[in-house]
């Protein structure tokens, strides 16, 4: 079997084939899954960014059948491909 066309490079942006590339994609630095930074970023490395996340906290149960929570904001690190 012979292929006449080259396989597209999924690592870089290619508007002709509508491939977005992996630049700026979020990755998991310590994962053994497909989303790990080394594989997903095509060995170009990644950088650490910070984001604020809202989540429910200090929840209290009120008798009967009602839960009230506050909204807390925490800062978390995440990694994106270079």
TrEMBL record:
One of its GO terms (molecular function) is cytokine activity. It comes from the Eukaryota. GO terms for biological process: canonical Wnt signaling pathway; cell fate commitment; neuron differentiation. The keyword Mitochondrion does not apply. Keywords: Developmental protein, Disulfide bond, Extracellular matrix, Lipoprotein, Secreted, Wnt signaling pathway. Ligand for members of the frizzled family of seven transmembrane receptors. PANTHER family: WNT RELATED. This is Protein Wnt. It comes from Echinostoma caproni.
